[in-house]
Hints:
Layout: H1 5-11, H2 14-29, E1 34-40, H3 41-48, E2 57-62, H4 64-74, E3 78-82, E4 88-92, E5 95-101, E6 103-106, E7 115-118, H5 121-126, E8 136-138, E9 147-148, H6 153-158, E10 161-162, H7 169-172, H8 175-187, E11 190-191, H9 193-201, H10 211-223, H11 227-237, H12 239-243, H13 251-261, H14 269-277, H15 282-292, H16 296-311, H17 322-329, H18 334-343, H19 348-358, H20 369-374, H21 381-395, H22 402-429
Parallel strand pairs: 2-5, 10-11
Antiparallel strand pairs: 1-2, 1-8, 3-4, 4-5, 6-7, 8-9
Cytidine-5'-triphosphate is lined by residues 41-42, 57, 128-129, 133-134, 173, 175-176, 179.
Amino acid sequence: MPSFASLIESKLSAETVEVLKTAGELAVSGDHGASDAYLVGGSVRDLVLGRSPKDPDITVVGKGGRFARSLAEAVKGTIVSVSQFGTAIIDTPLGHIDVTTARSETYSQPAALPDIRPAAIEQDLQRRDFSVNAMAVSLVPQKWGTLLDPFHGFADAARKRLRILHDKSFQDDPTRILRAVRYSVRLGFSFEVATAEALERDMSYIDTLSSARLLAEIEKILLEPTRADILRRAEELGIIGAISPSLRVTETGLKAMEQFGASKTPVDELLYVACMASSMTEEEATAVIERLHPDKDWQAVMHGAATFRDLASLLESPDLLPSEVVELLERVPAPVLEFQRIAGPKTRQREHIEAYLRRHRNIRAEITGDVLAEQGVPRGPLMGKLLLELRVARLDGKVASRDQELELVRRRLPILLSREASESDNGNQRPTGAAVP
Ligand code: CTP
């Protein structure tokens, strides 16, 4: 087995190497709950591929929680969380360090949470998703940098292929189907033959996943720079349809995702949701929401995409007033409009959206409710009506100054007051039990 000592030292910062050495020393000292410590999972995969790993993942043989507390103390970090399964996250000035207890996992039924037992490192590697993620590098001084690779992940990394460790891997944990596409696109890997066959065969096991686990995987995809290619590949493989027949990704949506992703500033995840939802009908949006249980913002964007589909044709009308455009578009969440602005048809609707986003959505009357109150307008629905009329007049260019707004108030107030009075008179005269018109 190759020694990874020089690879670790060249690809990780000196400070991170120090933390890893400290972990190895604590493990051999024997008083910290663990007898052995390894760098594992994605960190080793990235080292093998010559990439700089992000936050290091450490697995210890023994009690991960207790070990993590000692390590946190030794490296002046703080424990962010410790779970009942002996996993812990340490926050350090260098970033997060994940510490897990070496464990075996058995699945009582597909997609169930596994039964977990402390185990040797080899068993811990055996429970993992793909051979390239099932390597470990020893951190204890006498074995520092030794690669443990019982499933030949090194050879698979060299051949750029993703391989599951046993035939039922996708059934045990169907999130691995989505992980497989994510890694294959991110790393430029293909699927080993039996892995490709198992993935196709076991696609329907995605149905057994909880909403929370499924949504978490979709969110991970959206975080990847290659999100559009991952979703494109997932669509080709039938994975998108397996998540929900109502979920579809279109080439227009994916192209827009690429365009948003190329932005130099960080992009709100909801823009990507709008790209995914762009072709959904209201029924489809409802079905996808039912399956994924996303948060309120995702839900609003998904429903909003469907709402936009329904009103898009109205935006083609040549004689819409700005206030009418505002009335239509105010019901549509901003990410959906952003999507339509860059990906929708280049017709009148796009001009309306651009004008709305650039100018109209921010236009308000200059005078406020307080000013209206000073003019004798009672607070309540009538004041709301008047403010709306003022905004409409502003938007449509009928008033252009505070004085003109006040003039409008003086004209409209008596009319609105008398209408309100006659409405309330009619209300008083209405016999009890009469239907409200
Ligand atoms: N793992 C697994 N099956 C899963 C999730 C995770 O076997 N369903 C294992 C893999 O060995 C993986 C490790 O746990 O390498 C850590 O998981 P995670 O942090 O999700 O992945 P990373 O490999 O660190 O990948 P990424 O670069 O995407 O964070």
